[in-house]
Write a structure and sequence with these properties.
Layout (H helix, E strand, L loop, with lengths): L1 H19 L3 H17 L3 H14 L4 H10 L6 H13 L12 E5 L2 E6 L3 E10 L2 E6 L8 H12 L5 E5 L2 E5 L7
Parallel strand pairs: 4-5
Antiparallel strand pairs: 1-2, 2-3, 3-4, 5-6
Helix pairs in contact: 1-2, 2-3, 2-4, 3-4, 4-5
Length: 180
């Protein structure tokens, strides 16, 4: 068991090193490598988290989405990842951007999640203390739930679970980025 975890851990360390060196392409490749290694050993949750980490670097990255879709029934909400892939195919004009430094900004116009290089990507409303409602910015019309949650996780980083409603679907999002 130690050697399989070493493969995954080594790729994750490489990914974090690439992020520190401001090399997003290398970070994505290493996160995908970690996910592939985890999938080879049938460590599905580790694979999912590694692929999702690659998406946090580039939320329109096709490779990690394809890997997640390929996991199929091993995913708790496989349809969400399939919808992500379909949306990327339908919207090649969407800009490439990362969610690592996503932040919630509030002003007289309301609350929104902004990402470096692209500005506002989600509009945020909290009708009560236990519910966060989000909608995509008009430039990203057609954004799937999984993409919104990848971004929102980085902006909120909740201490526990938070209920998120997007596109009429309500899910529980936790601090690790899992939802159900």
């Amino acid at each position: 068991m130690a050697s399989l975890n070493a493969d995954i851990d080594s790729a994750l360390v490489d990914a974090e090193r690439a992020l520190a060196n401001r090399d997003p392409a290398a970070a994505i490749a290493s996160f995908v490598e970690a996910g592939d290694a985890a999938a080879r050993y049938q460590l599905w949750r580790s694979a999912i988290r590694a692929y999702r980490s690659a998406l946090e670097v580039d939320v329109v990255g096709r490779t990690p989405v394809a890997r997640l879709v390929a996991l199929g029934a091993r995913l708790r909400r496989a349809a969400d990842w399939h919808a992500y892939g379909v949306a990327l195919d339908a919207h090649p004009e969407w800009p490439h951007f990362g969610a690592l430094h996503a932040q919630i900004c509030i002003d007289d116009g309301g609350a929104r999640v902004e990402c470096v290089g692209v500005g506002a990507v989600l509009q945020v409303v909290m009708p009560n203390s236990e519910l966060v409602e989000v909608t995509s910015d008009l430039r990203l019309d057609g954004m799937p739930l999984a993409m919104a949650l990848v971004i929102l996780r980085r902006a909120l980083w909740p201490g526990g679970k938070v209920t998120v409603r997007f596109g009429g679907v309500a899910v529980e999002l936790d601090e690790l980025g899992d939802w159900g």
